[in-house]
Amino acid sequence: MIKKNYHQLMEDEIRAVGKREDKAKLLLHICCAPCSSYVIEMLAGHFSLTLYFYDPNIHPLEEYEKRRDETKEHARTLGIEFIEGPYDVQRWFETTKGHEDEPEKGDRCSLCFDLRLGESAKLAKELNCDYFTSVLTVSPHKNSRIINETGFALSEMYGVRYLPSDFKKQEGFKKSMEMSRMYGFYRQDYCGCIYSKR
């Protein structure tokens, strides 16, 4: 199997949209302020962004609200539209049922990506966005290949272009950490799902 350079593919797409007279509209799925800060800064110069917080994987509710509120406030200060998706926890538990004991980066994570990116692609279609993508690839704990393959499959399904990414490349994760410290963001110590915390 040929290993794809998703970061290079993203840069190629960005060069292509740079030739347009107007900015392409991109729906960016976000999970928390620390992961999204660097990605937003990097993409905002090239796209008209809408941020989508759809994360029914985050437990407990207090943790979800803490991440949502901080991300929403950051979007407000940047003047970027923020949309919160439904906190349909029961759907998430049903989606990942039978995969409770798997380690991070296993099938449970893939199912979680399918759900969250699927709702992102669906909303991007409804909003007539040109692209959708997710900040999830900024994390060294997430499998960028699986996230990107999921994104491309959903692109075919919904007819919205997927912006490939590996945001951790070129010190992206390090930059997100530095920006988190600069903004004083709350930094969680688990991905959000109750099984990863356990």
Provide key terms for this protein.
12% strand; Rossmann fold; 51% helix
Can you characterise this structure?
By secondary structure, the chain is α/β, with parallel strands linked by helices. It has a single domain (6-197), classed as HUPs (Rossmann fold), CATH 3.40.50.620. Helices cover 51% and strands 12% of the residues. The protein is built from eight helices and five strands, in the order αβαβαβααβαβαα. It has helices at 6-17, 33-44, 61-78, 89-96, 107-126, 144-158, 172-183, 194-197, and strands at residues 24-30, 47-53, 81-84, 131-134, 161-162. A five-stranded parallel beta sheet has the order 3-2-1-4-5, with helices on both faces. Helix 2 packs across helix 7 (172-183) and helix 5 (107-126) packs parallel to helix 6 (144-158). The longest helix is centred in the middle third of the chain and has 20 residues, at 107-126. The protein is globular, with a radius of gyration of 16 Å. The mean pLDDT is 92.
Overall structural class, as computed from helix and strand content, comes to: alpha/beta
CATH homologous group name: HUPs
Question: What is the top-level CATH class?
Answer: Alpha Beta
How is the largest sheet built, in terms of strand order? 3-2-1-4-5
What is the distance, rounded to the nearest whole angstrom, between the alpha carbons of the first and last residues? 34 Å
Residues in helices, as a percent range: 40-55%
How many domains? The number is 1
Topology order in helix (H) and strand (E) letters: HEHEHEHHEHEHH
Number of helices: 8
Strand content: 5-15%
The low-confidence parts are none
Mean pLDDT score: 92
- What is the CATH architecture term? 3-Layer(aba) Sandwich
Shape: globular
Number of strands: 5
Rounded Rg: 16 Å
Largest sheet descriptor: 5 strands, parallel
Q: Looking at CATH, which topology would you report? A: Rossmann fold
